[in-house]
Design goal:
ten-stranded mixed sheet, NAD(P)-bd_dom_sf, about 35% helix, Dihydrodipicolinate Reductase, domain 2, globular, six-stranded parallel sheet, Gfo/Idh/MocA-like oxidoreductase N-terminal domain-containing protein, Rossmann fold, 10 helices, alpha/beta, Gfo/Idh/MocA-like_OxRdtase_N, nucleotide binding, GFO_IDH_MocA-like_dom
Length: about 350
């Protein structure tokens, strides 16, 4: 392993850990150093299935990963109900924390995590992978172009997938003691992040849950939506679901142009991300329709976006470890703003779909 490689320890063998295990192996500045599970047998099975190198240490507990002196970073893909315990303990043991989303069940719990990271001088980031794709800053350039896009007026985001019968019965994301936020925490987190990203993280004035959310028998959300409004007149909507065919859309509408992306959560192809823009679109007459046609931007990359994520996180950790730098705080701020909106949706549902003011 390279001298300045950042060493990851992984807590648990969740399905998302498969994708991010591959990401850590692909990224140029980090490596997997340890894996812990509730049993050593399960850790061995996961390591074999995912072709872990022989030097990776395998443990039958999470504590052993945190006590491993060679581990710089812990990636935590555990059920959300376990995040406070293990993220805080990791921070107290001076391990930097890459925390799978949803990061917490509520803002109170997230603040406990963030305070522990700050107090112990460790880097925090959540696992919202699409934020790190090279396509994302290119889309930002278009939204920031006053001549091509103009002023942002509306944002709409959807992340849904038909999870299937086995998922709806057995997955941790539908069990109230493990991931009580259900579809809102899983797919809704992405939608809310997309909306906040499009507004450059300007918080809305109000959040109002849409009527007729769907729940399972245990009271976990299977599908829901909400509308958000800003003091300057901007508005946004999102829809998230475990019950609807796969859709991963962002639409950002400006006074002069529009941006659309159809695969923002997981690009249809690892090595290219596409988005579509229009500027000064108008009617071209009958029967021609509208003109000019959308412009397609294809952003190529040598690495999938999750590998960009762990590489960026590792770069931040390396700056702390080798240069005495301070943790980058913007990722904690972005997580916190996302969690505030999640909490507001829950509150609006509980209060009969009343608007919830964001302070």
């Amino acid at each position: 392993m390279a001298e300045h490689t950042i060493h990851f320890g992984i807590l648990g063998c969740a399905s998302i850990a498969r994708r991010n295990s591959r990401a850590i192996k692909l990224a140029p500045n980090c490596s997997i150093s340890a894996l812990g599970s509730r049993s050593l047998e399960r850790a061995k099975k996961f390591a074999k299935e995912n072709e872990y190198p022989a030097y990776v240490k395998l443990y039958g507990s999470y504590e052993e990963v945190l006590d491993d002196p060679n581990v710089d970073v812990v990636y935590v893909p555990l059920p959300t109900s376990l995040h406070v315990k293990w993220a805080v303990l990791a921070a107290q043991k001076k391990k930097h924390v890459l925390l799978e989303k949803p990061v917490a069940l509520n803002l109170k719990d997230l603040d406990v995590i963030l305070e522990a990271c700050e107090a112990n001088g460790v880097q925090y980031m959540d696992g919202t992978m699409w934020m790190h794709h090279p396509r994302t800053p290119k889309m930002r350039e278009f939204l920031s172009d006053s001549h091509q896009f103009g002023k942002l007026k509306a944002i709409h985001s959807v992340f849904s997938y038909n999870a299937g019968e086995d998922f709806l019965k057995n997955d941790i994301r539908v069990q109230p003691d493990l991931d009580a936020l259900g579809a809102l925490g899983d797919s809704g987190w992405y939608c809310i992040r997309a909306i906040l990203w499009a507004t450059d993280y300007e918080m809305p004035k109000t959040v109002t849950a849409l009527r007729e959310p769907e729940f399972n028998e245990a009271g976990v959300i299977l599908s829901c939506g909400a509308s958000l409004s800003w003091e300057d007149g901007k508005l946004a909507t999102f829809y998230c679901s475990f019950l609807t065919n796969l859709s991963m859309d962002i639409s950002a509408l400006g006074t002069k142009g529009n941006l659309r992306v159809h695969d923002f959560v997981v690009p249809y192809q690892d090595h290219v991300g596409r988005f579509y823009v229009t500027s000064d679109l108008g009617w071209a007459g009958i029967p021609e329709g509208a003109d000019p046609p959308p412009t397609v931007h294809s952003i190529e990359t040598d690495l999938p976006h999750e590998a960009h994520m762990v590489a960026e996180f590792s770069k931040l950790v390396e700056n702390i470890k080798s240069n005495g730098g301070a943790p980058e705080t913007k990722w904690a701020s972005i997580s916190r703003k996302t969690q505030i909106v999640v909490d507001a949706v829950i509150a609006s549902i509980a209060k009969g779909f009343e608007p919830i003011e964001i302070n």
